[in-house]
């Protein structure tokens, strides 16, 4: 992957269970966004395997590489990427595989967007854009929901409200959710597990309480050049999601 | 007013309209390649497309005239396959006009495509939409100012074309005599009144088109890629 300090290797291996809310945590340039882009099919890793349920999305050995269109993902971009030519309603409708106005209406009600349905993105506040982007990412009913620092550009009060909304949606629709975040409080509030990346390498995956309770150790680890191992608690639940991409 | 005046203006409009339509069809794929794809000798291709902006029109006209000659491959092909000679014909000036106006369409479209954040195309792809759907429903509607600029600049440039048309088409009423050539011809014949009428029409069309571009783009300036 390309970082501000030149090319670096991104090497991650993890399993994510059905219904899990995984936060990806790490310093800037660690490869968090690149990891989401690899999973979405927007960036092709050099080698590795990505398996979603029983479907192979990427396998470098078998030369399998599904396009983003063929993967069941909903990606919420850091800049929201709302279509400026479409209203809130049309942005959400665009995500649907088959036109279903009732479903659009329900999603807009769920996110409190009904009164904004005829507005265009440039007429919305940051928090409203975030809601529309999240609603749109969910409108195609994805198996894997990915959120790239969704709350980074929003003030603290609004962030707390939206954290609750994200949690509500996750519990309601039960997709596998991946969220990139720098905010420990946010991770503690939302995540069921945390994956820590530094310099393109996965250095820990565990429950947020376990990882952040020992914050001194985490802090030392994140700032140390020595990327030693942190003991990880392996899940005994059946594997729903498994990926081992490597990207140079 | 004499019918020849209207005939010349109609021919000028016909040439500009056809050039603009053809360039819109050709310009989009070319601009798309230049904006989004990397390929060998891309800089040379960009330079060739921009050449008409710096090259004297007579130079391009001269080479087009040579290419139209049945003694050379392209002219020979046209005569053998379509039984057509392009020199001093409307089709001939149309082809020359398309090549000469290429940068006026391609450059605004290329800039428009490059201005659209890649996250919009990527968002559309992750929502399961094909490249064609993304192009028509996301890309095109979000680059309307660039399309308007390309269309208006091409049309305005085309109605004022002189050098290429006179080299390739000459001055045949109803076939290749466009307004800019008629102005030159009338001035040579000391018919300043007719030359003024042609000039006034070209001046008004050009100022209207340019005002439309500036006005449209100013309205769209508040456009926010949210």
Briefly note the CATH topology name of the largest domain in chain A: Rossmann fold
Low-confidence region ranges of chain B: none
Q: What structural category do the secondary elements of chain A indicate?
A: alpha/beta
Q: Approximately what portion of the residues of chain A adopt beta-strand conformation?
A: 15-25%
What are the SSEs and their pairings?
The complex is a heterodimer of chains A (248) and B (226).
Chain A lengths: L1 E2 L2 E2 L2 E2 L2 E3 L4 E5 L6 H9 L6 E6 L2 E5 L4 E2 L7 E4 L11 H7 L6 H10 L15 H14 L4 E5 L7 H18 L2 E5 L3 H7 L2 E6 L2 E6 L1 H6 L1 H9 L17 E7 L1
Parallel strand pairs in A: 5-11, 5-12, 9-10, 10-11
Antiparallel strand pairs in A: 1-2, 3-14, 4-14, 6-7, 6-14, 7-8, 12-13
Helix pairs in contact in A: 2-4, 3-4, 4-5
Chain B lengths: L2 H34 L5 H13 L2 H12 L4 H10 L7 H26 L2 H9 L4 H9 L4 H16 L3 H7 L9 H10 L3 H28 L7
Helix pairs in contact in B: 1-5, 1-8, 2-5, 3-9, 5-8, 5-9, 6-7, 8-11, 10-11
Task: Describe the protein in words.
Chain A has 248 residues and is of the alpha/beta class. Chain A has two domains: 1-59 and 148-248, 3-Layer(aba) Sandwich (Rossmann fold), CATH 3.40.50; 73-141, no CATH class. In chain A, 32% of the residues lie in helices and 24% in strands. Chain A contains eight helices and 14 strands. Chain B is mainly alpha-helical. Chain B is 77% helix and 0% strand. Chain B is built from eleven helices and no strands. In chain B, helix 2 crosses helix 5, helix 6 crosses helix 7 (131-139) and helix 8 (144-159) packs antiparallel against helix 11. The N and C termini of chain B lie far apart (54 Å).
């Amino acid at each position: 992957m390309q970082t501000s300090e030149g090319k670096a290797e991104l090497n991650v291996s993890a399993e994510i269970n059905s219904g899990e809310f995984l936060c990806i945590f790490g310093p800037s340039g660690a490869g968090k966004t690149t990891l989401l882009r690899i999973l979405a099919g927007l960036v092709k890793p050099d080698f590795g395997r990505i398996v979603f349920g029983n479907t192979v999305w990427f396998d470098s050995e078998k030369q399998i590489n599904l396009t983003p269109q063929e993967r069941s993902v909903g990606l919420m971009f850091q800049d929201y990427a709302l279509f400026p030519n479409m209203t809130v309603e049309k942005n959400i409708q665009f995500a649907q595989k088959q036109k279903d106005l009732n479903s659009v209406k329900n999603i807009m009600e769920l996110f409190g967007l009904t009164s904004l349905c005829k507005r265009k993105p440039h007429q919305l506040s940051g928090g409203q854009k975030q809601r529309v982007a999240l609603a749109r990412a969910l409108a195609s009913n994805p198996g894997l929901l990915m959120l790239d620092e969704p709350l980074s550009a929003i003030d603290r009060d609004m962030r707390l409200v939206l954290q609750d909304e994200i949690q509500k949606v996750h519990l309601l629709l039960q997709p596998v959710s991946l969220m990139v975040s720098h905010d420990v409080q946010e991770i503690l509030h939302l995540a069921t597990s945390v994956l820590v990346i530094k310099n393109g390498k996965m250095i820990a995956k565990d429950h947020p309480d376990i990882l952040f309770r020992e914050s001194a150790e985490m802090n030392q680890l994140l700032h140390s050049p020595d990327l030693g191992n942190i003991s990880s608690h392996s899940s005994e639940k059946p594997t729903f999601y498994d990926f081992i991409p490597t990207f140079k | 007013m004499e019918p020849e005046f209207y005939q010349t203006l109609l021919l000028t409009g016909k040439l500009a309209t056809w050039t603009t339509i053809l360039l819109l069809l050709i310009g989009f794929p070319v601009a798309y390649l230049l904006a989004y794809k990397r390929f060998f000798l891309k800089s040379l291709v960009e330079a060739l497309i921009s050449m008409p902006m710096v090259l004297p029109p007579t130079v391009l006209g001269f080479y087009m005239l040579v290419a139209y000659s049945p003694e050379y491959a392209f002219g020979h092909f046209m005569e053998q396959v379509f039984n057509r000679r392009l020199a001093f014909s409307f089709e001939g000036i149309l082809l020359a006009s398309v090549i000469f106006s290429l940068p006026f369409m391609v450059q605004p479209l290329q800039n428009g495509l490059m201005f659209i954040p890649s996250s919009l195309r990527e968002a559309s792809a992750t929502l399961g939409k094909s490249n064609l759907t993304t192009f028509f429903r996301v890309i095109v509607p979000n680059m309307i100012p660039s399309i308007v600029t390309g269309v208006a600049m091409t049309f305005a440039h085309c109605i004022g074309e002189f050098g290429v048309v006179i080299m390739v088409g000459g001055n045949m009423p109803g076939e290749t005599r466009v307004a800019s050539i008629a102005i030159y011809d009338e001035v040579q014949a000391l018919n300043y009144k007719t030359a003024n009428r042609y000039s006034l029409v070209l001046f008004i069309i050009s100022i209207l088109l340019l005002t439309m571009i500036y006005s449209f783009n100013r309205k769209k300036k508040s456009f926010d890629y949210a």
